[in-house]
Each structure stands twice: as structure tokens, then as C-alpha cells.
Amino acid sequence: MILPVVAYGSPILRKVCDDITAAFPELNKLIADMWETLYNSNGVGLAAPQINKPIRLFVVDTVQIVEDFNEEDIRKYPNEKPLKQVFINARKIEDTGNMWSYNEGCLSIPKVREDIQRPNTVRLKYLDENFLAHEGTFHGITARVIQHEYDHIEGKLFIDYLSILKRRLIKKKLDDISNGKVKTDYRMLFPK
């Protein structure tokens, strides 16, 4: 089932999310719904708070991005490994590597894109959908998507990395999103 994406201004997007256990009600259905919602909205990552669940769960699919790389992208990101993965109860071990800028957007903040600096490598501990433990190191675009989604389960948004001046410049757009004055090709849930 395609779920509505929670819009900027909703308090759940600022909540540090809770761990879950394998006994979480209908977890497999929730994960399937998250994948369906992600693909319906043409996203590459989706975190549970974005579908109104305050839990430490996110999904990432960078396969399409990497498959669409042109020659310049391949030179820029030679070690890029595409990934389709469920992350449960993730904990960041470290961010490392060079800081680099990339134009990010967010399904919860439609029609806003900004250049954001992030380290090019992230290391996490997490559980997969079968509650098997993993530790992984991720690089490039995949690391960036993981960091973006990880921020969601920590109550942080990509716009938090912007300067005060940049945030002032996009304030009207953010207010419009909070007030439901934005059109998207996917369902959204706006703050009350």
C-alpha cells in the first residue's frame, strides 16, 4: 500500500526514533509498504518518520542512480557500489573521508534542493529485515543517501546543514510546505 509522506513542519520529523524488535506489529507489511511508497514517489531512500512511524527503520535503493551513471559520474565515483537495503535500529559508528557537496532533496520537503556537504564514507551497525546484525562501510552516493536517511531517524533534516542565510532564503517555501501549499506527484500528510 502506498503511504502518504509526512510533510515538513510535522513534529515527528524532529523526533529521535525508537528501536524496534522482531515482534513489531506487521513489520514485513510495513517494509513492503515503504518500498512501494519509495518507488511511487521516485525516491532513493525513505525513513519511517516520513511515513508517520517514530521507529529506527529506513530503506535505501541506489541501484537506479548508479545504473544511470554517465562517464563523468563513473570517473567521479569509481568505487560506487549500488545498494538496496533495509536498515533497522541503525547506529552510526563514524563518518570519514573528504567532505563533498551534492545537491540533495527530500520527499518530506518537496521542490527544495540544496547543495549539502557530507563526508564521503559512513560506517554503521544495523539489523536487516530478518534481524540479522551487520556492520557496513558505505561510500559515495550510497553513503550520502544512508546519511540522509539516518538523519531522519535522529530527528534531523538536510536543511539543518544550511547556513542561517540559506534557511532564510527558503523560509517561504518551507512555510508553504507546512501549510499544504505544494503539489507533488505522490500523497502527502501535512501538519494540522
Short description:
With 192 residues, the protein is an alpha+beta fold. The chain is 28% helix and 32% strand. The protein starts with a strand and ends with a strand.
Question: Can you describe this structure?
Answer:
The chain has helices spanning 27-40, 63-67, 71-76, 140-153, 164-169, 171-178, and strands at residues 5-6, 45-47, 57-61, 84-106, 109-127, 133-139, 188-189. It has 192 residues and is of the alpha+beta class. It has one domain: Peptide Deformylase, CATH 3.90.45. The strands form two sheets. It has a five-stranded antiparallel sheet with strand order 2-3-4-5-6, with helices on both faces. The protein has a two-stranded parallel sheet with strand order 1-7. The two termini are 23 Å apart. A hairpin with a 2-residue loop joins strand 4 (84-106) and strand 5 (109-127). The chain has six helices and seven strands; from the N terminus they run E-H-E-E-H-H-E-E-E-H-H-H-E. The longest helix has 14 residues, at 27-40.
Which parts are unreliable, with pLDDT below 50 for 5 consecutive residues or more?
none
Q: The CATH topology, please? A: Peptide Deformylase
Could you give the order of the helices and strands? EHEEHHEEEHHHE
- What share of the residues does DSSP label as strand, in percent? 25-35%
Biggest sheet character: 5 strands, antiparallel
Ends apart, CA distance between termini: 23 Å
What's the overall average pLDDT, rounded?
95
Strand order within the widest sheet? 2-3-4-5-6
Identify the CATH architecture.
Answer: Alpha-Beta Complex
Question: Structural class of the helix and strand makeup?
Answer: alpha+beta
Looking at CATH, the homologous superfamily is Peptide deformylase
